[in-house]
Amino acid sequence: MPCHRYDLPASRRDFLQTAGCGFGGVALAALMGSQAQAAPLLPHRAARTKNVIFLFMEGGPSHLDTFDYKPLLNKLAGQSLPASFGMPLTAAGEGRSPLLECKRTWKQYGQGGLWVSDWFPRVAQHADDLAMIHSCASSGINHAGGVCSMNTGSIFGGRPSLGSWATYGLGTENKNLPAFVVIKDSEASVVNGVRNWGNGFMPAVYQGVEFNSDGTPIKYLDNPKGVDRQRQRDKLDLFGALNRSFNASRASFTELDARIKSCELAYQMQAEAPDAVDLSKETEATKKLYGMDDKSTATFGRNCLLARRLVENGVRFVQLYSGAGSKWDSHNGIEVKHSSLCHSVDQPIAGLLADLKSRGMLDETLVIWGGEFGRTPMSERGDGRDHNPTGFTMWMAGGGVKGGQTYGATDDLGLYAVEDRLHVHDIHATILHLLGIDHTQLTYTHKGRPERIDQNEGHPYTKLL
Fold first, then answer.
1. The dihedral formed by the CA atoms of 34, 180, 160 and 156, expressed in degrees to the nearest 10
2. Which residues pair with 319 in a beta bridge?
3. Domain coordinates of the chain in residue numbers?
4. Can you count the helices (H) and strands (E) in the chain?
5. For residue 297, what is the DSSP state?
6. Cβ distance 308 to 300 under 8 Å?
7. CB-based contact 153:105 (threshold 8 Å)
8. Would the CA dihedral through 95, 101, 103, 109 be positive or negative?
């Protein structure tokens, strides 16, 4: 594992001796450079999970109306939160508002009897594959802090994202596509923007690559009109030579190094990527499975199908955003807003799970569903729910997790995680553990400090295995 540490020489003699001993390493690096760049690093332990698809519902989906059934909530609807719950801190400051009933119809599914509301009837058919985690918690009470925390482990920007840590630890499985891809469901910006899939203090090569939400997935994939492949190769060779010459005395300038690598990757993608992202090769039955025949589900269905094709072609980490622009945020009108959003993702997610399973890919692909936090049992503005980072639901499927079961629990009203509480740091440690990475050993030295994704606080939740 690279340590990225600089030890200053004590004297000029020490410097010359160290530099001289390194000449052999320079030659070896030149001989092995192309192979070393493409070869993935060995995981710390044997693991089924090879790839991750993270389905991110941006804005905070309500666990109380989707996957965390709380009958007591309806019995006490209209009353104040019992005094035993204390005075919870809420984003909008309506902690004393009356409890809001859940208007959903609930049923139990699968051999494990998982409760799922009528907002996710198709995902419910895959209950035996779902590991339902009801005890998630975050430090971010607002969207900026919550989304940043779920992606990077910190409510403040500047740290590497989960996808960056995964690709840093395991490398890439392909030479013609990015290792980490992000796709939104619209042109709207996710809160915090590209920082959510940024590389932070790591080299820029580990940042996520954003694909288009409609049309051609990859911008500028085709050569300009009148430019053939050889001319494009000659142009990139010239740019590469100029960039490497400029970068020779600026080794710490990782952005330029990443740009050089991205130019080479772009050239490879022009030859290989069109086939990987060409959805016209899929059958009409497969497209229908993902909901692409329905306008209301077509966008997220397309993105889910594209995610399957990407992991099939060796992309390590794919993150799909639903509701870009915090559309899952439902401070009022939760029935209308959530109803539309749940419908738009239910069939595509169910199709993704079914397709991965039928192709024998689900065992090696970890699918994660969730947002930056949940919603409160108390009402807001009469017909909405506030942010709730103290107890909410996420689920995982595939990748070696034990499905058909619930893990952890919130209290009887769904406000606080009270059993097997999993902070975001624990969730990140668990995901890396499923990838075969010991998160305590995956470090990156920044300003003399060995940094970890969990900031020395997380623990993998091994009950999922």
1. 160
2. 54, 182
3. 12-218+277-464, 222-274
4. 11, 17
5. H
6. no
7. no
8. positive
Left, alpha or beta for 448 (phi > 0: left; psi -120 to 50: alpha)?
Answer: left
Q: What angle do CA 382, 384, 390 make, to 5 degrees?
A: 120
Determine the Cα–Cα distance for residues 86 and 413; give it in Å rounded to an integer.
Answer: 13
Distance from the first to the final alpha carbon of the chain: 26
How many residues comprise the chain? 465
Q: Tell me the C-alpha distance between 131 and 464, whole Å.
A: 7
CB 367 within 8 A of CB 49: no
Predicted TM-score (pTM) of the model is 0.85
Tokens read off for 464:
């999922």
Measured distance CA(247)–CA(352) in Å, rounded: 43
CA triple 312-260-15, angle to 5 deg = 120
CA distances, 38 to each of 35, 204, 256, 313 (Å): 6, 16, 19, 15
Residues 245, 326: Cα–Cα separation, whole Å: 44
Q: What angle do CA 246, 249, 251 make, to 5 degrees?
A: 100
Query: What phi and psi, each to the nearest 5 degrees, are found at residue 419?
Result: -140, 125
CB distance 328 to 63 below 8 Å:
no
Task: Write out the chain's pLDDT in tens, 465 residues.
Answer: 444 444 445 555 555 555 554 444 333 333 333 333 333 466 888 899 999 999 999 999 999 999 999 999 999 999 999 999 999 989 988 878 999 999 999 999 999 999 999 999 999 999 999 999 999 999 999 999 999 999 999 999 999 999 999 999 999 888 889 999 999 999 999 999 999 999 999 988 899 999 987 777 776 666 666 777 777 777 777 877 877 777 776 666 667 677 777 676 666 666 667 788 889 999 999 999 999 999 999 999 999 999 999 999 999 999 999 999 999 999 999 999 999 999 999 999 999 999 999 999 999 999 999 999 999 999 999 999 999 999 999 999 999 999 999 999 999 999 999 999 999 999 999 999 999 999 999 999 999 999 999 999 999 999 999
Residue with tokens 């997220």: 300
Q: Write out the two tokens for 343.
A: 């419908």
Task: Considering the domain delimited by 12-218+277-464, tell me its CATH architecture.
Answer: 3-Layer(aba) Sandwich (3.40)
Query: Which of 53, 56, 76 lies closest to 64, judged by CA?
Result: 76
